[in-house]
Amino acid sequence: ERASSSLYRFPLLPVRGIPLMNHIANSWDTIWAFRPDPSDILIATYPKAGTTWTQEIVDLLLHNGDADACKRAPTPARSPFLEIVSPPPIPSGIDLMKNMDPPRIIKTHLPFQLVPPAFWENKCKTIYVARNAKDNMVSYYHFDCMNKTQPEPGPWEGYISKFMRGELAWGSWYDHVKGYWKEREKRNILYLFYEDMKENPRREVERIMKYLDLSLSDEVISRIVELTSFEIMKENPMANYSCIPTHVFDNSVSPFMRKGQVGDWRNHFTPEQSKMFAEDYDKKMKDVNIPFRTLI
Ligand code: A3P
After folding, report:
1. What's CA 252's distance to the chain center, in Å?
2. Domain covering 26-284 assigned CATH 3.40.50.920 in the classification
3. Which helix or strand (DSSP H or E) is residue 81 part of?
4. Which end of the chain is flanked by fewer CB atoms within 10 Å, N or C?
5. Mean pLDDT by 10 residues, the chain (296 residues)
6. Is 109 one of the catalytic residues?
7. What ipTM does this complex have?
């Protein structure tokens, strides 16, 4: 049953071959024409790769580790989601930015070729976070079960096929991670891995800090690492998406802050599914050498 007349599992429509939520596709010209400020920071990810985590780290870095300042509003109100347009619950990124002063921390799931070109004209700093395909897919599956605006995930087995065919919202994971990888040097993109962030969060926070030309004290860095741990963020109402009503994000199905681990794919893939997936993966990824890790 629909929770309201305007809110339901939105169908996907292709934009230059990439399946996107219908409202995004219908507003595509406005999104493509968006002009950021040169000081704006772009955080780009395939969905469920660690976007919210990175948004929290960057906001804390820009606020010198001030926890209260970073509790001024929930994540999607502090850090606009570029391509999201109404209907609710996540506010339209472009509308939100009209009332925000740069530098803004802008989130996008768009693949490289769909990022509005003014980001590159203005040389905006861009942080890309990639997560290994299997954990990324597991996380997306649970998200699609609980997020009532995403297409029905269907059974797990079929979900693997859809992922492999690039039929989920925002398209192919393989093309996504490759697209930014190939452009990272030319566009000065900081390319991070979720697994590295889990393995040594301090090292990755410092890497982001340097990329943003910031220099914070060791004590502040330690505080940021602590404040952005999974356990603390899960309890932070301004970082855990509890702002979204439960008829839209149904936490009883799966919480937004679900497990935050590397290797949960082992609890989902059968040995046969892992083998089949790996054979296809090797073919799709043979033209690049991106150092993904499925365990740490
Ligand atoms: P799981 O579903 O595997 O738990 P995104 O923000 O891109 O939607 O990604 C969400 C995924 O990142 C979820 O993965 C979520 O639990 C995880 N995540 C969020 N904050 C995290 C943190 N501070 N540390 C580790 N993982 C985090």
Report:
1. 22
2. no
3. none
4. N
5. 63 97 96 98 99 99 98 97 85 94 98 98 98 98 96 97 98 99 98 99 98 98 98 98 93 96 98 98 98 98
6. yes
7. 1.00
